[in-house]
Write a structure and sequence with these properties.
This protein is an all-alpha fold. It has ten helices and no strands.
Length: 217
């Protein structure tokens, strides 16, 4: 097969793909591009070449590269439920144990190739307000909502203070792990997770138990 016939075949394939199939191919290509070149060098041209489609097909669906990168990242990341951040936790699992599981799941994701994509996008978002807003709305907000649901479950069980069910508190665990693994590139072992849970999360969310009064005299 000649080079010319190969190009014709690729164009024919692109023409046959429609709707969800084409979108999936573009998003897969976008994630692979992010993984290999990072957000700074990420381009619609590069994604179009990987997906064997035209730039127009991409721009019709995602007007900016920030929107494309954000959706590609969100699509390929584990869902909140897959990270253990869900209210449907077995009754025998305490809130603290559930949070330990969440920390382990987040750590696994951040240590995987997906962590390189998150690092690249988040570092760029620091200087790009539009990208930062998209990341918060599309990626972080669903995970924050799931964490809030887990905390509300803890309130119902008498394990979490109602005042601790806030977006800021819900962001603490992901923020600490992201800072250590992505920004500082510090290792996170099981002992580190235990320290974060016991030294930060438990004092932050736990119901304050009244100390028994000592008898007078």
């Amino acid at each position: 097969m000649t080079a010319a016939s190969g190009e014709v075949s690729e164009l024919a394939l692109a023409r046959r793909r429609r709707g969800a199939e084409l979108e999936d191919a573009i998003l897969d290509a976008a994630f692979d591009e992010l993984s290999e070149v990072g957000y700074t060098s990420f381009s619609v041209e590069g994604v179009a070449a990987r997906a064997h489609t035209g730039k127009a097909s991409i721009y019709r669906r995602w007007p900016t590269k920030a929107e494309l990168a954000c959706e590609a990242m969100t699509r390929r990341m584990p869902t909140p439920s897959e990270c253990g951040i869900a209210p449907a936790v077995p009754d025998e699992v305490t809130t603290v144990d559930a949070l330990r599981g969440v920390a382990r799941a987040i750590t696994r994701v951040l240590k995987s190739p997906a962590g390189d994509v998150i690092r690249s996008v988040k570092c760029e978002a620091a200087a790009d307000p539009t990208l930062a807003r998209l990341i918060d709305e599309e990626f972080q907000a669903p995970r924050r909502a799931a964490m809030l649901a887990l905390l509300r479950r803890g309130v119902a069980r008498g394990e979490v203070r109602p005042e601790a069910v806030t977006p800021m508190v819900a962001d603490v665990l992901p923020a600490l792990l992201t800072h250590r693994l992505i920004l500082s590139r510090e290792p996170v072992a099981e002992a580190t997770i235990t320290e974060i849970v016991e030294q930060v999360l438990i004092p932050l969310i736990s119901v304050q138990r009244a100390s028994p009064r000592r008898p007078v005299g």
